[in-house]
Amino acid sequence: MSEIISIKNITQAHELMGLEKPSHPLISVFKHCPEMRTDYGDIRLTSDLYFISMKDGVSGTFGYGRNSYDFEEGVMIFMAPNQVITPGDMDIEADAQGWTILFHPDLIRSLELGRTIEDYSFFDYEVTEALHLSEKEKKNLTELVQKIETEITQNMDQHSQRLIVSNLELLLNYCTRYYDRQFYTRSNHHSDVIVRFEDFLKGYFKAEEQLENGIPTVGHCAEQLSMSANYLSDLLKKETGRNAQDHIHSFIINKAKTDLLNSKGPVSQVAYGLGFDYSQHFSRLFKAKTGMSPKEYRSLN
After folding, report:
1. What is the number of domains present in the chain?
2. How many CA atoms lie within 13 A of 74 on its CB side?
3. Which of 185, 217, 239 is the last residue of a domain?
4. Which of 134, 151, 185 is the last residue of a domain?
């Protein structure tokens, strides 16, 4: 088993990568250059930091989540704290234009971004769900990164933290826009994902897996489709207006309606047959989605 190194702060991260001492204790911006450490052997890393990186001019692979990732030009990757990565071997070109932002949660904890950071679901995407950028988009984000870097390296005053975080938040908001664009431009591919998702649900209940494993979770569905739970939910939300959990519930309710009208057994029997551990949980969900209880639905139909 390879060694896991835990990075607790920005200084540790700089030491590991062979960079100079950071200018700020809670955030770092650095451009990718050949002088950086690129050979990490078989160690694995985990950290308390958020990681945002545009990989331009970097080749090689690294492991993250369930996948091994090959770098491509102009691809952005986001990682939340406590993720485990395997850096692998990388090669950085002399004219690389990429950059990385590392920041500790303490930087944003007292500000609005500290309360909304979890809304940026792409921090929990797989690396295979990375953000692909146009040249114009890369230029826009790099300009914001330069503003953050300027604030970090100049003399700090009472406005510094808020300006750093404001630009960081603006960068994340632009990334949200660009991901929306990516969802839109890959609509044909996503339509295929939706079909495969629906086919998985049909197959799951047809094989009666719910009797042993319960109602399928978003995480389990996403794993079967080789993607992260957040990416699947965001994709479905953009394409259909409903997230993955809503789709699962809708499928279950439609099946429940059929089961209720084609059996005379008690509601609890229908609930258990759908994978619910408790009948009242089924009744509560059914009423929330249809406006009536299972018994009322059965009596009216």
Report:
1. 2
2. 11
3. 185
4. 185
Model confidence at 57: pLDDT above 90: no
CB 19 within 8 A of CB 58: no
197 has which bridge partners?
none
| DSSP label at residue 89 | B
Q: What are phi and psi of 291, to 5 degrees?
A: 85, 5
What pLDDT score does 33 carry? 75
Helices and strands: H and E segment counts in the chain: 12, 11
Q: How many Å apart are CA 116 and CA 169, to the nearest integer?
A: 10
Q: What is the mean pLDDT of residues 6-25?
A: 92
- How much is the average pLDDT of 9-29? 93
φ, ψ dihedrals at 126, nearest 5°: -75, 160
Enter the tokens of residue 168: 């960081």
Q: Are residues 72 and 200 in the same domain?
A: no
Shared domain for 211 and 99, answered yes or no, is no
The count of C-alpha atoms lying within 13 angstroms of the C-alpha of 229, restricted to the half-sphere facing its C-beta, is 8
Name residue, tokens 């042993």: 212
What is the Cα–Cα distance from 123 to 256, expressed in whole angstroms?
35
The 10s digit of each residue's pLDDT in 247-267 is 999 999 999 999 999 988 899
With beta carbons less than 8 A apart as the criterion, state whether 72 and 25 touch.
Answer: no
Domain that holds residue 111: 4-185
- Rounded-to-5 percentages of helix, strand, coil across the chain: 50, 15, 30
Q: Are 40 and 60 in contact (CB under 8 A)?
A: no
Q: How far apart are CA 154 and CA 228, in angstroms?
A: 39
For residue 196, what are the CA distances in angstroms to 41, 66, 142, 186, 215? 38, 20, 37, 16, 18
For 147, the token pair is: 């503003």
> What one-letter code names the amino acid at 60?
G
Phi, psi (rounded to 5 degrees) for 39: -110, 110
**265 close to 255: Cβ distance less than 8 angstroms:** no
The structure tokens listed for 260 are 């209720």
